[in-house]
Amino acid sequence: MKQNLYNYILGIADNSLILGQRMGELCGHGPSLETDIACTNISLDLFGQVRSYFQYASKLAGDGRTEDDIAMLRQEREYVNVLLVEQPNTDFAYTIARHFLFDVYHLLFLTELEKSKDLTLSAIAKKCIKEVRYHERFTSDWMKRLGDGTAESKAKIQEAINDLWTYTDELFHQTKADKAMVAEGIGVDVTKLKDAYYEKVNEVLTEATLETPESKYFQKGGKKGIHTEHMGYLLAELQYMQRAYPNMEW
Amino acid sequence: MTTTEQNIDDILVPILEQVSDPEIPVLSIMDMGVVRSAVIENNKVKVQITPTYSGCPAMDVIGDDIKAALKHAGYDSEVELILHPAWTTDWITPRGRKALEDYGIAAPLGPEADKDVLLHGKRIVKCTNCGSQNTRLVSQFGSTACKAQFQCDDCQEPFDYFKCLK
Q1: One pLDDT digit (tens) per residue for chain A, 250 residues
Q2: Of A40, A222, B55, B110, which residue is the least packed, with the fewest Cβ within 10 Å?
Q3: What residues of B are in contact with residue A49 (Cβ under 8 Å)?
Q4: Which residues contact A77 (CB under 8 A, 6 or more apart)?
Q5: Is some CB atom of chain B closer than 8 A to the CB atom of A179?
Q6: Residues 6+ apart with CB under 8 A from A218
Q7: A143/B contact by beta carbon, under 8 A
Q8: Residue B87: its chain A contacts at CB < 8 A?
Q9: What are the E-state strand segments in chain A?
Q10: Where are the domains of chain A?
Q11: Fold entry, domain A3-244
């Protein structure tokens, strides 16, 4: 099996899987009907994208593991998503800030992945980017509405940005699989996305009349499978059905 | 990889036109542009479909419906989901756009107009009930991921707008 490519795909897909799960938690709990529906629709987009990645990974694995097995039956340490996406829905400001900080990265990432020499990954990227553009519009719009809204909404979204800032740098760390795939012209060199990322984030924050955090202390670990304390609870819910009723299907 | 051209055997067109999008029953999958190829090879029909949105839950149903329709017409079939080239709202046929409007869903505008509408609140989406352009965006995501929610400020009708995907 092409182990590096397999690991590389998990690195991309796990971000969308875990973020999709977080957004899905808002089903029936969004602050208004419209935002509730938006969050669950975004979640559905992400899960759809994840299916494409895991179907490909399943084909590469070639050992009978299905897309569902890969998504549902790994242990916590085997998930390689960034810490940012597993952070909880503390309040709506955190939900929006987390998603916005990921969307800006996601869009830059997919724009590069489109050029991948791997035709399947390139096709998935081309498909995903159209959807992620809408996500980025939605979250950027809400950043501005909350930031340039009431004193309370502004304080809350600023606090969420300040708290989540520490998880942004990890987006640009390269794993072993990343390096191998970049060398083969398949993967994206995430280190090169960093400047454009912070520039874009800063642009939206400024328009939202918010402060860009100055802290240079960053958390990392997710890409190596070392997660924050929130991950176990998230997986417990995500994997409940497959653990309680092994091999169940829709 | 396939090209943007469709490759559908003429004899199969009427069969596939009977299959509709389960979420928009007035719209056939042919008018939706999701069927990219359908050819008969050794008495078996090979169909390739492409999803509108990655997470579209209708795709599994559409695949099953295609197989059932072809079976009814006496063909065994195989349905493959392809991602490239990615679906765009440009592939909805004029007949499909009209079916959408008649059903109460505003058809997608071009990409620039779409941006004006969704980001800058420009009032150009026509109400599907009274035709007024005095409409406003209620939510960027509507009843499904592919639609946004609008309301007409003249007749007060709430309606969906099919977002431009290009």
Answers
A1: 699 999 999 999 999 999 999 999 999 999 998 899 999 999 999 999 999 999 999 999 999 999 999 999 999 999 999 999 999 999 999 999 999 999 999 999 999 999 999 999 999 999 999 999 999 999 999 999 999 999 999 999 999 999 999 999 999 999 999 999 999 999 999 999 999 999 999 999 999 999 999 999 999 999 999 999 999 999 999 999 988 998 887 6
A2: B110
A3: 54-55
A4: A225, A226, A227
A5: no
A6: A166, A167, A168, A169, A170
A7: no
A8: 127
A9: none
A10: 3-244
A11: Ferritin (1.20.1260)
Tell me: ipTM over 0.85.
Answer: no
Inter-residue contact B130 to B157 (CB < 8 Å): yes
Distance CA A66, CA A52 (A): 12
Interchain CB distance below 8 Å, A130 and B85: no
User: Is some CB atom of chain B closer than 8 A to the CB atom of A38?
Assistant: yes
- Search chain B and give the residue with CA nearest A32: B139
Report all structural domains of chain B as residue ranges with CATH numbers, in order of start. 7-91 (3.30.300.130), 104-162 (2.20.25)
A134 touches chain B (CB under 8 A): yes
